[in-house]
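User: Hello, can you help with two protein structures?

Assistant: Certainly.
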Amino acid sequence: MTEDKTPKTFEEIDARLQDDLKQINGEIEEIESHLQIAQEMMDSELAKNSNDKIIVKYKKGLDELQKGLEMFLGIKDEIQNTITKLHETKKQADEHIK
């Protein structure tokens, strides 16, 4: 028999969302780091007047990293909104129970 890992309580749901938020923040930091390195590498190639094909590849890579960053920032916003709504719902439920 398999164990159901679905969170059941407010605390479990909140903890899972907080963990997800930490993971997303880590991904965002990693992408930002890669963006910075890629930009520095492209700037170096531009300074050396490198072949246009090389510059185009760097620009394409930077664009892809930027799209990934925007996607993860969107996910982060959604998780933060979900956490806020969860806390508001818990507060309303607690007030209703009183």
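That covers the first. Now for the second protein you mentioned:
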Amino acid sequence: MNRSRATVAVDVGNTAVKLAVELSPHTAGDHAACRQRNFESLPSRSFSLDHRQWPDRLVQWIKTEVQVEDAIWRISSVQRQAVERLRQQVAQSFPDAHVDQITRDHLPMPIDVDVPETVGIDRLLGAFAAINRFDGPVIIVDAGSAVTVDYVDDRGHFAGGAILPGLNLQTHALATGTDALPPIDWTRNPPLRVPAKNTTEAIQLGVLTSVTSAIDRLIDWYNRHPNRGQNGEAIVVLCGGDAAAISARVERQHVVHHGLVCQGIFDLSLPPRREMLR
């Protein structure tokens, strides 16, 4: 059994809990190693909040598959009830575990918005991870229950963003707000015809176009931001559960980067980059 002091990074979202385990922390202050870390090589898993026993299943996965008992648990959450269930399960299963719930006060990244405490911690951690991996400015598109399109300027400051309904929220609204329109399974990503030739295709085409067109327009607007620096256009980083569904239809150049929130949690062990201190 691995008795190292591992770090368990947990991202509690609105519909699922994502987690990753770093068995041996990277060297403090080594931002180059941070950029080169292969997140895909870390043990990681997602658990749906719809499953009643998800906290127990999560803990059993840590014990039996990852084989970690001694760990620091660092939790980011936008779902208060779910995080309380998780904390209770961790305390029961790992009585000696150290558990931190991440807040904006943990992040060394300046937050240049009207009311910083209202910004979701998932947005901040995703932005923090992105700016640690790419030279700013950076635009972070997180396609989950909601789609957020956030901007980090060339100084490493979180400068705000936009929020719009995600794919499932939009199609759920159509299915529940009308008498005949069907629900949509976004796990299937078939090629779409333009114009669409059936109702399901028409809903997919309409919703995808509304989301991706908004993303492209926001990218254009952000690239005119006064603090865009000398690097030219911002790097666009796409993440989230629906990233695969929308990536092919976002016209602006972008990279897909999975697990940004968990990576942002791991990055909290790094000292702030110099530009963030300006």
